[in-house]
């Protein structure tokens, strides 16, 4: 593969009236594909946001291998294949049905195996997508980089905080491109919300509310189990890896998230997406303390992972941001039925209310006059005191009754077909082709995963967990 022939096709970000282009033409016979452009029209302002121009020489290919061809493996591989020049040549999985499905979907000629090391040995593979359960991420990621492969590793980067250092070191030692797969890091909404925050439109950020609620069985990870699941069709021993040995159990295999031996629970699985967005928006390295409650409220199906987690995190002042607090939750037993996912950035003068790929800004301007009356000590004054007070107030503030004004700001929506996963994969392949910066690298990945995993620790121990986000170390509490 000749990377030097590739065009820089980084996602780029511009306002129409002040377009900044990052395109550098360095190759001939290039084809150009634009994806992910989106716009909004509000308050007479029209933006064009995050447009990914991809230019790839027709004879250049990045060959990828998929390790873990389950639910997200399909999404990630299908999305990677939308990036010009990317070809899937191999897939690895521990369930025969998924290897058959891989051939059905991606072609009979792809190489399939139950042993990921056979993927890593192949000279024709440049990069791997690691889409296995969490407890396998560290080992496969390190083995892959040492075998010379670039790695796109699904979130959370690691199942255990201490696993993070090995990945960080392997990335440094090998110089391979490593990106964690929490696509929020490349989402237009996140990147534009960051720009809004930095513009000062909501004043000083003081508080973030971030949540992920789900009400149904699949939302609570009761995923379908194929009828032919058996010790013959599943390599259960390999699935267990370093986890405690247990007899064959298709529920553990297909619904591994519900067990702390393999997953990271609601916090590690979903708060990590929220923190990824928060860390990109605020340029924060992470919280200093985490206090969390966790419980199994509804899904008493044998799982040991909480279905309700509420956490408070304290982000102290850094050279990038003022101090702010985060209140976050995942409720998989939500009886409100609304579900959803959101990050609300609350400032002293407004709020940026972010959904998955859209957000709204509201601003609040307080009046200088304090106002009086209503729920106020004024009502308890005698008639004489009231008259005296009114006279004084009007001499100070005139008729201004104080309070505040609320106003709607930007109402951001991406293009209908916008896909943050595609932009995230474009960033990854761009990193391989041009050595451009990977925001969600191994250190970023650990800084998002560790406080999320620490929610489980805090809930279990019943005490706050102290974390050094700069040096990425748990501190004694
Ligand atoms: N970025 C996102 O939005 C997102 C969404 C869902 C899942 N994920 C992450 O992706 C990962 C996979 O989740 P999923 O829902 O696809 O799980 P899944 O159970 O559907 O798929 C995992 C697959 O990995 C295979 N596997 C297990 N151990 C393996 C091994 N040692 N070698 C090769 N294959 C192995 C299994 O056979 C299974 O088919 C998890 O880490 C999860 O947190 C990310």
Explain how this protein is built.
Helix content is 29%, strand content 26%. It is of the alpha/beta class. The chain has two domains: 3-182 and 420-441, 3-Layer(aba) Sandwich (Rossmann fold); 186-227 and 261-367 and 404-416 and 443-475, Dihydrodipicolinate Reductase, domain 2. Strands 18-17-16-15-11-14-13-12-19-20 form a ten-stranded mixed β-sheet. The chain has a six-stranded parallel β-sheet with strand order 7-6-5-8-9-10, sandwiched between helices. Strands 1, 2, 3 and 4 form a four-stranded antiparallel β-sheet that branches. The longest helix has 20 residues, at 442-461. The chain is elongated and about 90 Å long. The chain starts with 10 loop residues before the first strand and ends with a strand. Nicotinamide-adenine-dinucleotide binds next to helix 1 and helix 7.
Span between termini: 50 Å
Side-by-side strand order of the widest sheet:
18-17-16-15-11-14-13-12-19-20
Q: Profile the largest sheet.
A: 10 strands, mixed
Secondary-structure class: alpha/beta
| Quaternary organization | single chain
Count of distinct strands: 20
Mean pLDDT comes to: 89
CATH superfamily of the largest domain: NAD(P)-binding Rossmann-like Domain
Proportion in β-strands: 25-35%
Low-confidence stretches: 1-51
Q: From the coordinates shown, what is the CATH architecture of the largest domain? A: 3-Layer(aba) Sandwich
What is the name of the CATH topology of the largest domain?
Rossmann fold
The domain count comes to: 2
Any idea what the shape is?
A: elongated
Tally of individual helices: 12
* Cα radius of gyration in angstroms: 25 Å
